[in-house]
Amino acid sequence: MELFIRQLNQAGVVSITGSVDALTSGELTKFMLEQIQSGQRQLVADLSQVEFMSSAGLRAILAAFKESRQQGGDLRLANAQPGVQKLLKLAGFTNIIRIYPTVQEAVSSFETGSAA
Amino acid sequence: MNAMIEPKTLDVLDNVGYAYFEADLSGRLTFVNDTFCQMSGYPRLAVLGRHFRHFTTRQDARQIYGLFNSLMKSEGSHKNIEARLKKQDGSIMIAEGRIAVLKDFGGKAAGMCGIFADITDRKRLEETMLQARQAAEHELQIGRRIQADFLPDSLPQPKGWEIDSYFKAAREVSGDFYDAFFLSGGKRIGLVVGDVCDKGVGAALFMALFRSLIRAFADQHYSLSWMDVLSGDSAKAGQNSSVERRRAMLSPGATALKNAIHLTNNYITKNHGRTNMFATIFFGVLDSVTGSLIYINGGQEPPLVIGPSGIKRRLEPTGPAVGLWPDLEFKIEQADLEPGDILLITTDGLLDARSPQGEFFGEERMLELAGQPAASAQALLQRLQQSIAEHVAGKSQYDDITIMAVKRENQL
Q1: Span between the terminal Cα atoms of chain A, in Å
Q2: Which of B3, B96, B193, B263 qualifies as a FRET site for B302, CA 20 to 30 Å off?
Q3: Strand B310-314 and strand B304-307: pairing?
Q4: How far is CA B412 from CA B33, B117, B157, B160, B339, in A?
Q5: B4-to-B36, B43, B44, B136, B144 alpha-carbon distances in Å
Q6: Is B321 on the interface with A (CB under 8 A)?
Q7: Residue of A22, A93, A95 lying closest to B198 (CB–CB)
Q8: Burial classification of residue B266, based on how many CB atoms lie within 10 Å of its CB (0-12 exposed, 13-18 middle, 19 or more buried)
C-alpha cells in the first residue's frame, strides 16, 4: 500500500494505492493522524486506487475521521471502487462519513463551508 | 606435514574464518590450518597424528564415518555436515561445513579433507527464537481455550425448531462470535452473529466484550414506555407500519433488542472510543410459538430467509456497525419464519474465503447453495461447509467463518 498527500485548496488529499487490510491499516492510521496533528485537519481520502479494503481498513478510516472531527476538521471520502463502496455502505459508514464520487467534489464540499 | 592444497587457498580459508583439515584413510589428522587451532584451542602439534574422533562427539564421529564411506563409494563429490567440535577447554562449538575425499596427485583416494565454520551463535539465536515462538503459541492456545468459553456450549432447541451453527476461526483466537439464548420467559430466543473489525488479539478481546454486553443488556428488564420504543423508529414507523408490526415493536423482545444494541453501542463508543473498535452484529429475537422474528442488523451481510422454493427474503442492514459513534439509530425490522423456512446468518468470512488461485467464494455461490432445499439446518450447514472446503482446497483460512442456521420444522 502506498500513501501520498497533496494540497488541493484548503484540503489535504490523501491518495491511497493498493490494499488496506490488517497488514497495512496501521500504517494508514499513523499517516492520517500525523497529518492531522501537523495541522492538516481537512482531509479527503482518494480511494480510487484502493482495490481491497477489510474491516481493519474501516477502522483506520474511523480513527482518522474521529481525530479530524476532534480537531475541528473533517475527513471525507472520494471515488471509492464498487467493492469498497459496498463495504462502506454495509457497515453504515456512508451515513456517518461524507463520501463523494470525485476528489474535486469532496474538496469543494469544504469550500462551501458545509461544516462537519 | 604439508597440506595437499595450495598455500594461497589456505590463506583464503583463514581469512574467511573457515577451519580446514586433512586426515589419512585411517582418520588420523595430517594437517589442520590456523583457524582450526584457534577454534579448537589446541596447538597444531597436539592435533597432528591424532584421530579426528577425539575432537568431536561419538555421535558426530559416526556421522562423519558414514558420510565419508558413502563418498568413497562415489556417492557425490562432497557432503554437507553439521557437527560438534570438542574444544580443548571442554566446551562445545557447533560447526557447519563440508567433507570430501582427499585425492593424491595421481587421483587416488588418500584420505579425507574438510572445511567448517563456527555457527554456535546462530544456533543459539535460532533456539531462542524457537522458544519465543513456542511461548507465544502457548499463550494463544490459552487465549483460544478461554475464548471458547465465550461461545455457547450448546444451542437452545425450542420445540418445533432446529438451531445449528458452524464456526471456524482463522487463527488461534477469533473476532467472530455467535450466540443463542432464551430471553426471560422462555419463549423468545435471542440469536446473535457478530464480527469484530480487524484481526488478532485485539479483536478477540473485543469479541468477549461485545458478546458479554449484548447478553447482559438483553437480559436487563429496563422499562421503556412504548413511546420511547416508537420514537427510536421516528416517523417511518407511523407512516407504513401495520398494527402487527407496531405490536411486535412494543413486545418485550423489542425492548431486549433495543437495549442490547443501543446500550452496547454507547458503552463501546464512550468507554473504548479511543481504540476505534466496532463490530457488525445481527441480533434477532425469535418468537418460537409464532415464528415472528424481530431484528436489528448492524452492518452484517444480509441474513437469508429460505423457503422450500428458494430464498424468500434478505434481511438488509437496519443500522450501522455497532461501536462507531454514540447514540446512533438502529431500526428494528420484522420477518416471519413459516414452517419449513430456514434463517441463515453468516459473517463475511464465508464470502471472502479464497481459493489457492485467489478467487473469492463470493455471494453468488453462497446464494446458489443456500437456495437449494435442505432437509435440516444441519444439512444446509454441511453443504456449505463442504463447498467451502472444496473451494479453499487446503489453503490457509484468511478470515473467521461463522454460520448459524435456524429451521422451523414443518408442521405435521
Answers
A1: 28
A2: B263
A3: antiparallel
A4: 93, 81, 18, 10, 10
A5: 16, 20, 16, 51, 61
A6: yes
A7: A22
A8: middle
Reduce the DSSP state of residue B8 to 3 states and report it: helix
d(CA B69, CA B49): 21
What grid cell was written down for B201? 488479539
Torsion of CA B138, B141, B146, B148, to 10 degrees: 180
- DSSP secondary structure code for residue B263 in this structure: I
Distance between B272 CA and the closest CA of chain A, angstroms:
12
Q: Which residues of chain A have pLDDT under 70?
A: 112-116
C-alpha to C-alpha distance for B246 and B248, rounded to whole angstroms: 5
Q: Do A93 and B320 touch (CB under 8 A)?
A: yes
| pLDDT of B393 | 86
Mean pLDDT, chain B cut into blocks of 10 residues (412 residues total): 82 93 95 95 96 95 94 88 95 95 88 95 94 92 88 93 93 89 85 93 92 88 47 48 57 84 95 95 94 96 94 96 95 95 94 88 92 92 93 84 95 72
A25, A30, A62, A67: which to substitute to probe chain B, counting the most B Cβ within 10 Å? A62
Closest chain B residue to A94 measured between Cα atoms?
Answer: B320
**pLDDT at residue B1 in the model:** 61
Point out the residue among A54, A56, A92 whose CB comes nearest to the CB of B321: A92
Q: Which three cell numbers stand for residue B269?
A: 463508543
Q: Does B253 touch chain A (CB under 8 A)?
A: no
How many Å separate Cα B311 from the centre of its chain? 32
One-letter amino acid for residue B75 of the chain: E
Place of cell 418445533: B160
A14, A32 Cβ separation under 8 angstroms: yes
Amino acid B40: pLDDT? 95
> Which residues from chain A sit within 8 angstroms of residue B273, using beta carbons?
66
CA atoms within 13 A on the CB side of B109: 14
Distance of alpha carbon B197 from alpha carbon A61, whole angstroms: 12
Q: Return the closest-CA partner of residue A42 out of A8, A12, A71.
A: A12
CB contact under 8 A, B280 and A90: yes
Cβ distance A92 to B301 less than 8 Å, yes or no, reads no
State whether the Cα torsion A108-A111-A115-A116 is positive or negative: positive
- Cell numbers standing for residue B127: 533456539
Distance CA B382, CA B376 (A): 10
Question: How many CB contacts within 8 angstroms connect chain A with chain B?
Answer: 55
- Interface pTM (ipTM) of the complex? 0.91
Q: Which residues contact B202 (CB under 8 A, 6 or more apart)?
A: B275, B277
- Spatial distance between the Cα atoms of A83 and A106, rounded to a whole number of angstroms: 20
C-alpha cell at B310: 428458494
Residues B385, B326 contacting (CB under 8 angstroms): no
Closest residue to B199, CB basis, from A56, A58, A90: A56
